[in-house]
Amino acid sequence: MHKKATKDVKEQLDAVEGPNEKIKFLQQKYLDKVHEANKLDKQNGTLQRSLDTSNREKDSLTQELARVNTVRFFALCASIETRLFNLPGRNTDQEEVGDFVQGADQAKQKRSRPIQASLLRGNGSFPSPCGG
């Protein structure tokens, strides 16, 4: 492509009569190239800003997805805990069951406080669901 463009310019330059007209022709070609370069620079800047905006939006959505998945995970864990607790064959002594439920509720509250704080801060780091 470069060779063809060079050949075309040489042919056009050879067709021009006189040194002043050749200088004007070359000046016009130069100005056209400068104008094209400026136009491409502006287009590149616009595309770069668009890319940056898209990347920020993608990062934001990824963080939001991580938060939503974490909330769903802990909700699922709570549901599983409830179902396991209600399995047949467990000790049904009301006093013992009441103590167990109260202890489980307190443990769940202790585990959920750091999680809720992380979700509210939105920093994307979450404590281990296993208490580690």
Task: Please tell me about this protein's structure.
- The chain contains 3 helices and no strands.
- The protein is mostly helical and 132 residues long.
- The longest helix has 67 residues, at 19-85.
Helix/strand layout:
Elements (H helix, E strand, L loop, with lengths): L1 H14 L3 H67 L8 H28 L11
Short overview:
The chain has 132 residues and is mostly helical. The chain has 3 helices and no strands.
C-alpha end-to-end distance: 63 Å
SSE ordering: HHH
Net shape? rod-shaped
pLDDT < 50 stretches: none
The structure class reads mainly alpha
Instruction: Tell me the Rg in angstroms.
Output: 35 Å
- Strands, count: 0
The protein's oligomeric status is: single chain
> How big a fraction of the residues is strand?
under 5%
Features:
132 residues; 83% helix
